[in-house]
Design brief:
This protein is of the alpha+beta class and 78 residues long. It has one helix and two strands; from the N terminus they run ββα. The longest helix has 23 residues. It binds zinc ion.
Amino acid sequence: MTGRPRRSASPKAPAAGPVLLDWRDSSHWSSQPKPCRYCGHATQLRDSRRKPAHKSCAEDALAQQAADAADAYRKDTL
Ligand SMILES: [Zn+2]
């Protein structure tokens, strides 16, 4: 006996891997450059809410959100 509880049906936390967005659609493009909502540098790209954002900045933000959510999930279940 090791005293360690068996965890047979433990759900897996979402993996915080790289997030890749598909912004090829024209709705993600504007002719007018505006400051990125994340880094502040000018961009002609728009996120899914039509807010100015670089694709790489949005992907970083999404990855961070996923990591934060995974952390919160682990805290909630421990
Ligand atoms: Zn940016």
